[in-house]
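Trying the structure run again after the queue cleared.
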Amino acid sequence: MSIDETFLKNLPTGPGVYIMEDRQGKVIYVGKAANIRNRVRNYFSKGGDERLKVRLLVQRIANIKTILTETEKEALLLENNLIKEHRPKYNVNLRDDKSFFSLRLNVSHTYPRLTLIRTQKIKINGAKYFGPYSSARDARITLNLIRRIFPLRQCSDRQIARVKRPCLNCQMNRCLCPCAGTVDPKEYRRMVENVSLLLEGRNEELIKTLKREMLDASENLRFEEAARIRDRLYAVDRTLQKQNVSFFHFKDQDVVAVLEDPPDTYVVEILSFRRGNLLAEESYIVKNSTLEPNEILTSAIKQFYHNAVLIPAEVLVPMSLERQEVIESWLSDMRGAKVNIRVALRGPGALLIRLALKNAEMALERGKQKSLADNALDELSVKLKIDSSLKLIECYDISNISGVEPVGVKVAFLDGVPFKSLYRKFKIRNFENQDDPGMLNQVISRRIKHLAEDPLGDLLIIDGGKSQLNAAVAALQEVDPDHRPPVISIAKAQSQDDTDRIYAPNRKNPLSFSKGDACLLTIMRIRDEAHRYALSFHTGRRAKTVIRSNLDNIAGIGPKKRNVLLKTLGSLKGVLEATDDQLLGLSSITSKDIQRIRECFKDFDFTES
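Done. Tokens:
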């Protein structure tokens, strides 16, 4: 289609969306406008937009489609949907269908439960939602904090309906045990209301409420309940003292800033404040040489709040947005109350913008480090003469002391980053003496039995020298040659001036790497993570062996009582720190057993295990 003056004259004049396509019919840009004809003509007129990015875009346009809407606000929503669907090259793609995390409190239930959900799963069913949290880590930290302070139930609705005995959380005093029918629904409801106060940032009100409830319980001789509330009060107070990122006010406010790193990189930084406390931070790196900071900022805000669960009353930005009044109206409609987008050039707001830019600089540095790691993997594949790219790397290590409690581990790195869901532990069997190559052969042999559900990586790294490498190669002979990945080993340097040595199969001498080489450092980093994981596993195994053998040596403590002690109290340290009354409350544990335990472990030193 020829885009000439006749074509431009026939474009509609109402609000809507215009979709630009290249010669292959691929969508390369989506925009919205209050007047489509005027906006599109501006791209092609001589006195129009002369920016380089616009010239580059215009050269590639072969066709323009339009979709009319009733209002400019509807056009904004449609633009967001089309960008998410087509991922146009010349638009900002802030995230890849990423949904945020929120905490859900199902207050309609008799005994509400606090859970972590994605915003895509939100249903309008009377539950309370808190957030959103930009990262799963922030949300889980908050959830774990709440569970430590307030013993809400953790079992699902189905579990609580079918349960026949108290769960482990009840036995460990981490839950008020609604499943056992031992908690007053009114007391549980008061606790739920306190959780809401904490999550809403109403800290002073929460502390006053807890003090009032503690006093009321004490005056009515409910001393156990008063003690529980006292402990919660102390925990909340300690938690609030740790929150030192508090700024000037008690507003619900987001701060959005853009950092430019010429020639083609931008970082969008979003800080979320609730009641003046910084609760979440998220960074997005945008690679696009054709856009400018104002356009990046406008697109980022539209995409970030599209389908958002909670929208703050105020959004601080470092510069005015394109059609800011339309975006404010759109956000206000979604929030159900007024939303103000404020340009912060001075005062407290400017300080928050600077804080956001500081976080953006850190995110940019992290991105550059990741890019260096990616380049190092590309160089490594060339160095090892591997045709395919190195996406997934596995590393194996053995840990034992003179053959005692030997273990093996596998760690996995995806795109240079630890991929912990693919980490594996192996308890090595049938070895009485130290035989690292033999143990490694067993680990690899057992690993390849699970290829159907866990395919091998693009490269295998073995912690050790030639003998360990040969043992791994021998185990891999069972794998189809077409699916057998390359394997190398890394041995520690023999002297301070030397470098770690990298061995490859069928090669007498180690591969040559200069000290500080990015490829060598990448291999060393992966090896060090495998060594850490193996050592941690081995240390834990030895500690359990010491604990179990000592418990087994106590007269009257058989396997049944030993399991009750360890499962309920978690560890030997938990057993020894428990009071006599707590131990007597456990199934089958008698006062005689307690006396024998105290006597056996009176000189036990935890640091030795």
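The longest strand covers residues 277-287. Worth checking whether this holds up in the mutant runs.
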